[in-house]
Structures are given as structure tokens and as C-alpha cells.
Write the C-alpha cells for this entry.
Amino acid sequence: MELKRVEMLGFKSFPEKISVEFDRGITAIVGPNGSGKSNISDAVRWVLGEQSARTLRGAKMEDVIFAGTQRRRPVNYAQVTLVLDNSDKKIPIEYDEVSISRRVYRSGESEYTVNQNRCRLKDVQELLMDTGIGKDGYSVIGQGQIDQLLSTKPQERRLIFEEAAGIVKYKTRKETAIKELEEERANLNRVQDILEEIA
Ligand code: ATP
């Protein structure tokens, strides 16, 4: 699975639709300070479900929407689309190309699509679990992250290996199942109480 393209519209410093192509091999993005290089990696994190404005170097989520300049009016929404080559079917859907989009309006309303079908953030997260490209995967390594990784607690470092080993999906499902079991157990106890009351 490879990243083929990132399309941005109204995202941070990109008011107009812009598409950044990633060919095979290494792609280097060069440009003067403040020209928007890091905004491209922010766009990738954002579309993968990043919910923290701080991680995206802003104060609130609305800061990802182009705020206008002296010569350009602000825009009303930001949209980013990641186009991934899925010919190896690492993402568990049948298509050879997968496009994941996120759009947010100034009102705060937000939507996600996978291959043009609307879905929830949870669906995007589940789809990307164990592929290594989820928000908490290791596909975007920010400045200082390596240092952080080396100094972090072993338990936290383990999470990265778990993602790489492809077991996060199963761990998450197990946690959900345990929670459901606990709820059902509580329901059963409640039924038992009622039965005893009317016996
Ligand atoms: P450096 O080389 O210094 O790290 P860079 O090329 O990575 O810089 P970025 O940090 O990606 O640059 O881009 C910063 C620019 O993006 C700033 O000029 C900032 O004003 C602009 N910018 C960020 N958010 C918005 C927004 N919501 N609307 C308009 N411009 C924005």
C-alpha cells in the first residue's frame, strides 16, 4: 500500500485545490520557511482522524481552515483527500485505489468519506488499524518524535510494536467484547433481582 496523492482544498495555507503527487521512491518537499511544507504532513494527520488542534499546530480545529490573507478572503471549509494504492489489499476493501476524505466547516460540522461513501471517523480508524497509517501509526514521524520514542515508557513503546505487528485490531475488538459482556452481566443481575422480587 502506498500513498499516491494528497489533495487539499481550503486547508491551512492552501485556499485553492492543490494536489501533491507521491511517486515511487522518496519524495522530498522543499521550500522557504513558512511556505507550507509542514502543512502537508498536518493534512495527512488530519485526514487520518487527528482530533487534537495542538498536534496540528493550531489552537482550535477551525484553524485548519484557510483564514484568509490581505489579498484573499477566508474560505468556509477545509477538505483533504488521501489517495492510496491498495493493490496489495492491505486495506481490507476490494478496491485497488482507496480515497479517504475529511471535510470540516466553520460551524464545526465534519464529515468523512471512503471512496466517496460517507462514513464515521470510527469506520476510517477501523479500516486503517494495523496498516501502519492510522493516526497513531508510524507513517507520519514528526520533529522530536524519535527522541520522544526513545525516552518514553516501555509500556507506551510497546503500543508502536503492537501496531506494527498488526494486533491492535484484535485488541480493540477484545476490549469492546469485554465491555459488552460486562453490560450483559449487569443486565442479567438486574433480571435476577426482578425475578427474586416477584418470586
Ligand atoms: P518551516 O520551514 O519554517 O518549518 P513550513 O514550510 O513547514 O515552514 P508551514 O509551517 O507548513 O511552513 O506553514 C506555515 C504557514 O502556513 C504560515 O505562513 C501560516 O500563516 C500559514 N497558515 C497556517 N494555518 C493557516 C490558515 N488557517 N490560514 C492561512 N494560512 C495558514
